[in-house]
Write a structure and sequence with these properties.
Lipocalin; 3 helices; mainly beta
Length: 289
C-alpha cells in the first residue's frame, strides 16, 4: 500500500508538472541557460532501470525472542562473521528538471536478493554437579541465508553543472524497501558524485564520466528461527523462537564509471559499472518529453 501510495503521489506530481509546463517554460531559467550555450534535456522524463549488485555486509547484532529452552540449557549465543549480499533491482523513475541545475524524482520498484554469512553458535549447558563450569556445545553454520525480496519506493534530487564540455553532478536519493519473504525493512541513503566529458560538440551524442557511490544502508530483519537452515541439533531449542538481525554495509564508498548515449532528444540509454569492494552493473532507458 505504501508503494502504491508513493507512486500515485509521484504520478500526480508529474501530471501537475505537465500542466505547469503549458503556462511556464520548464526548466525555470531555461532561456538564461541556453543563452550561455548550454544544451538542456527535455524537462519531464520516465526512466526504466535494472541494477545488479554484490557487496559485503557486517551483522551488528543477532537477537532472539520466544525461546523455550530446556531447564538444563542456560543460553544460546550466536556471533556472525562478515557476509555478502547480492541483489537485483528493477525500478521505474519519474523526474522533472525544475531548474537547469536541479532535477527532482520519485521512484518505485522490485528487489530480489539474498544475504549470506557464517554464524558461530555456543550453547551453554548447566553442569550436573554444583560448582562446576558450564558445558559448551559449539558449532558453525556455514550458510546463514536470508531472502531479501521486497518492494521499494523513494525519491531524490540531482544537482548538476558544467563548463564547456566538462560537467559534474551529484545524485542524492533515499529509498525504503518493505520485505515480503521475511519481516523487516531496508532504508538506504545513496550519494553519487560524478564528473565527466560531453562529446556532443564533437558531433557524438555521448557522455562519459567517473565518480563514486556512497551508500548508508540499515537493514532490520526479523522472522521465525524454524525458517532458517539451522543444524538439526538446534531445532528442539528454537522451535518457538524468532530472530531479529541488524546489519549494515562493510564499505560505504566505491568507484563508478559510466556512459550515456542520446538516440534522440526524447530517448537515452545509460550504462554504469561499480568496482572495488562493491561491484554493480546499472542500465537504464530514459524517455523524455
Amino acid at each position: 500500500m505504501r508503494l502504491t501510495h508513493s507512486l500515485l503521489l509521484g504520478s500526480l506530481t508529474l501530471a501537475s508538472s505537465f500542466s505547469y509546463a503549458q503556462s511556464f517554460t520548464l526548466p525555470l531559467w531555461k532561456e538564461k541557460a541556453e543563452a550561455l550555450g548550454y544544451e538542456l534535456p527535455k524537462p519531464i522524463g520516465f526512466n526504466l532501470s535494472y541494477m545488479a549488485l554484490e557487496q559485503n555486509i557486517d551483522v551488528t547484532s543477532i537477537g532472539f525472542n520466544g525461546l523455550e529452552l530446556p531447564s538444563f540449557v542456560r543460553n544460546i549465543d550466536m556471533q556472525a562473521e562478515q557476509g555478502s549480499q547480492t541483489s537485483e533491482v528493477v525500478t521505474l523513475r519519474a523526474d522533472m528538471w525544475l531548474f537547469p541545475f536541479l532535477n527532482l524524482y520519485v521512484l518505485g520498484g522490485k528487489m530480489t536478493g539474498t544475504s549470506e554469512t557464517a554464524v558461530n553458535y555456543d550453547v551453554a549447558i548447566k553442569p550436573l554437579l554444583p560448582n562446576r563450569p558450564d558445558h559448551h556445545i559449539k558449532g558453525r553454520i556455514d550458510n546463514f541465508k536470508l531472502d531479501l525480496d521486497g518492494y521499494l519506493y523513494g525519491g531524490g534530487v540531482v544537482l548538476a553543472g558544467g563548463y564547456k564540455q566538462i560537467f559534474g553532478l551529484v545524485d542524492i536519493s533515499y529509498t525504503e524497501t518493505e520485505l515480503t519473504v521475511i519481516d523487516g525493512s531496508i532504508s538506504a541513503w545513496v550519494i553519487s558524485p560524478r564528473i565527466g566529458y560531453d562529446f556532443y560538440q564533437q558531433g557524438v551524442p555521448l557522455r562519459v564520466w567517473g565518480g563514486a557511490m556512497y551508500q548508508n544502508v540499515e537493514q532490520s530483519l526479523s522472522g521465525k528461527l524454524t525458517d532458517l537452515d539451522l543444524p538439526a541439533a538446534l531445532h528442539p531449542l528454537v522451535k518457538d523462537g524468532t530472530f531479529h538481525i541488524e546489519q549494515q554495509l562493510s564499505t560505504p564508498w566505491n568507484p563508478i564509471v559510466g556512459m550515456q548515449y542520446q538516440v534522440s532528444p526524447s530517448l537515452y540509454f545509460l550504462a554504469e559499472a561499480g568496482f572495488g569492494d562493491r561491484t554493480s552493473i546499472f542500465t537504464s532507458i530514459d524517455f523524455r518529453f
